[in-house]
Amino acid sequence: xxxxxxxxxxxxxxxxxxxxxxxxxxxxxxxxxxxxxxxxxxxxxxxxxxxxxxxxxxxxxxxxxxxxxxxxxxxxxxxxxxxxxxxxxxxxxxxxxxxxxxxxxxxxxxxxxxxxxxxxxxxxxxxxxxxxxxxxxxxxxxxxxxxxxxxxxxxxxxxxxxxxxxxxxxxxxxxxxxxxxxxxxxxxxxxxxxxxxxxxxxxxxxxxxxxxxxxxxxxxxxxxxxxxxxxxxxxxxxxxxxxxxxxxxxxxxxxxxxxxxxxxxxxxxxxxxxxxxxxxxxxxxxxxxxxxxxxxxxxxxxxxxxxxxxxxxxxxxxxxxxxxxxxxxxxxxxxxxxxxxxxxxxxxxxxxxxxxxxxx
Length: 360
Ligand code: UT7
What we know:
Layout: E1 3-11, E2 15-18, H1 19-25, H2 30-37, E3 41-44, H3 49-64, E4 73-77, H4 88-96, E5 102-106, H5 112-125, E6 132-139, H6 149-152, E7 157-166, E8 172-180, E9 188-189, E10 211-212, H7 214-236, E11 245-248, H8 253-263, H9 284-294, E12 303-310, E13 314-321, H10 343-354
Parallel strand pairs: 4-5, 4-6, 11-12
Antiparallel strand pairs: 1-7, 2-3, 6-7, 8-13, 9-10, 12-13
Helix pairs in contact: 3-4, 7-8
Bound molecules: oxa(dethia)-CoA.
């Protein structure tokens, strides 16, 4: 039995951090950021990950024509959970009133949505779940240092959600490739969101921010996504010429273009929406998928490829044949409440916390 996607939705927080805003915070400029990354603006969430997850989930449920009680599984992929016990998924279940759903979180960093889709679709195909909600959500500004230009220009907050359920035998997931290499895990680290975190009242700013090695990650990403897509297509018995749409993790437009060129996939088939969102880690693929569907770029029967890489290091690709519906059954008016302050107000405590690490 194939597992298909029947609902989709996203939450882009109302506050934006533009390149012009960043010019006021760090020594950077709009031209550098656009040229090196393709990013123009990022969403910044004034609330919690569950708030964004709820909005995305309500849009996805409406698109599939379901109410919360119809769900029997909720999986939340995130590297920035609001809380670890109860899990984000359980907090979301309570918020939605999805009383019939099992719920758990999953962490594969930026590959979280692909790992999540592999997990959820396998459970649906095995008959363990019938109507699953999968959410990728991140509040990445929480792990940034808005005085460090090497990292803070790249990331944004957001959520994307899909509903996965059984479809016809000839539709759904055709092949999966998942992998990890912990040996090179030190290239992307956030040290203190687990039990390595300090008991001290004086948290050390140097340990409370993302550490990453940009150039090393760039090369790992291009190679990792290219090889993973090739393996997944081979398992599906397909070649790149059979692919209609690629929805890649949105880490950097240059990474996406380099991987597409190596694969020999036309740029027109590749969904890129990083300009308005930045890198939203586990949320980036379901947000890009939502845009692609709402723009009519995916039609029933299309061969769609999802591919990602991320911290761990992890990677993964999924080849899916789209089901017989690429339009929403219904829509939702769910949205985040408006913030009271502006983006500089939101980031003021962050900048105060990290001030001691910087000369300016
Ligand atoms: O989901 C996975 C998460 N990680 C990623 O996706 C990141 C992957 N890596 C990248 O996207 C790229 O490596 C970056 C965008 C982070 C950097 O691009 P790059 O072309 O590799 O630049 P670079 O690291 O070689 O830096 C070139 C210069 C350096 O100055 P010097 O040493 O040549 O004088 C940097 O200090 O650019 C400087 N620089 C900046 N300049 C203006 C670094 N960040 C900035 C900035 N604004 N924000």
